[in-house]
């Protein structure tokens, strides 16, 4: 092992996968040894099997307490679980789910993040750009096409808000 590797990192394949530290948390670059982050999106219905009808209480029951809770600059209540952030209205309605995604699964299609901008341009003629985000009304998502790989799944009623935002 190179001397400049952080303690706990290993190339050994003899250690069980769950015992190896996650390299994904320490780098924005995709690594062959890192687990691929994926978002499974059923547009306007569910993200990774979690329905948009989920309340904050149901989310806590399912995932436990969040790492942090805060109020966003857009006046939504954020429950931050580290790799996923859930944003709710004051009344408990889920608005957005943001997570890092190397791959976005849209039904039976898997789109690598680096190809997402082109995929949206080709398959969603109604897509638009707001505040540096590409927004897809067809697929119910918004993202900034940069190496951070953060993708936001949107509830159906959010598209109008994004569309009304100053360009």
Short description:
The protein is α+β, with helices and mostly antiparallel strands and 167 residues long.
Attribute tags:
167 residues; alpha+beta; eight-stranded antiparallel β-sheet; 3 helices; globular
Radius of gyration: 17 Å
Counted beta strands: 13
**N-to-C span:** 50 Å
Helix-strand category: alpha+beta
The total domain count is 1
- The number of helical runs is 3
| N-to-C order of helices and strands | EEEHEEEEEEHEEEEH
Region (Disordered): 1-23
Q: Can you give a write-up of this model?
A:
- This protein is an alpha+beta fold and 167 residues long.
- The chain has one domain.
- The protein is globular.
- It has helices at 56-63, 113-123, 159-164; strands spanning 38-42, 46-47, 50-51, 68-71, 77-80, 84-88, 94-100, 103-106, 109-112, 128-130, 133-136, 141-143, 150-154.
- It is 15% helix and 31% strand.
- Strands 4-5-6-7-13-12-11-10 form an eight-stranded antiparallel β-sheet. A five-stranded mixed β-sheet has the order 3-2-1-8-9.
- The termini are far apart.
- The protein has three helices and 13 strands; from the N terminus they run E-E-E-H-E-E-E-E-E-E-H-E-E-E-E-H.
- Residues 1-23 are annotated as: Disordered.
């Amino acid at each position: 092992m190179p001397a400049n590797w952080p303690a706990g990192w290993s190339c050994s394949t003899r250690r069980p996968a769950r015992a190896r530290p996650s390299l994904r948390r320490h780098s924005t670059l995709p690594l062959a040894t890192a687990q691929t982050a994926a978002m499974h999106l059923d547009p306007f219905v569910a993200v990774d099997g979690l329905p948009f009808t989920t309340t904050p209480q149901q989310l806590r029951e399912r995932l436990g307490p969040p790492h942090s809770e805060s109020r966003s600059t857009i006046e939504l209540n954020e429950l931050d679980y580290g790799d996923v952030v859930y944003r709710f209205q004051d009344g408990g309605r889920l608005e957005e789910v943001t997570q890092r995604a190397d791959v976005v699964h849209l039904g039976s299609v898997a789109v690598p993040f680096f190809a997402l901008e082109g995929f949206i341009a080709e398959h969603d003629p109604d897509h638009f750009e707001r505040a540096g985000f590409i927004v897809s009304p067809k697929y119910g998502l918004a993202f900034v096409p940069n190496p951070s790989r953060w993708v936001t799944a949107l509830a159906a009623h959010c598209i109008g808000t994004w569309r009304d935002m100053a360009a």
